[in-house]
Amino acid sequence: MTTCNDIPNEDWIGYLYDAIDPQRRQTLALHLDDCADCRNVVDDLQGTRQFMKEHAQEVPLAPRLVVLRPRSQASFWTFAAGLAAATAVFAIGLTVGMRSGTPVQQPVDHALVDRPTLTKPQTLPVGDYLTREEFEQALVQFNRATKEPTRTIQQPAYLTHSDLTNALQRLEVAFEQRSSDDFNFIMDEITAIESRGVQERAFNRKLMGVVMVDQDPRYKDQ
Length: 222
Fold this sequence. Notes:
The protein has helices spanning about 10-15, 20-35, 35-55, 75-100, 130-145, 160-215. The protein is mostly helical. Among the domains are: about 5-55 and about 175-215, no CATH class; about 75-100 and about 130-155.
């Protein structure tokens, strides 16, 4: 047989919020039919729940803070090395393209077809260009200066569908964990508030009983 001491306040809260299994709920309902003290406890909890429901909008919501992970120094140097390598590769590709590219055909001015024209020989723009060996040597020196292992030129990495899926899954797990933590925090606060309310009401009832006994003329001479 279930006694009052066997039923914690969490079960009564779950009974009010319909957050327990049906078998446990039926057991509590049968106990309430025979126990007036537990009915008083449930009535007190129900009153507290109604009070919180009516005054829920008066409590401002706490602002959400997004904590960003600090950027590491190693990732900065890795990005700088990749940027320098990409810039050098672009310069080499531009130089090779200018040397081996075919000239673009200019539009013909029909009014000047019969006139003799002088064409200038095409020359490359003046500038400093690195050969592939010079670039490899510069990259090795840069890696030594930054204390990183020598790396060969690779194609830039792009975000794949698998990386995006994994990132979304990690975000979903973090969101669910945060929601669970918030729910547990709210339930703990509700339990603490209702427990304090029950204790205060029990103390008030006891105090009122003492006052009534003190005012009773039958007990004044005792």
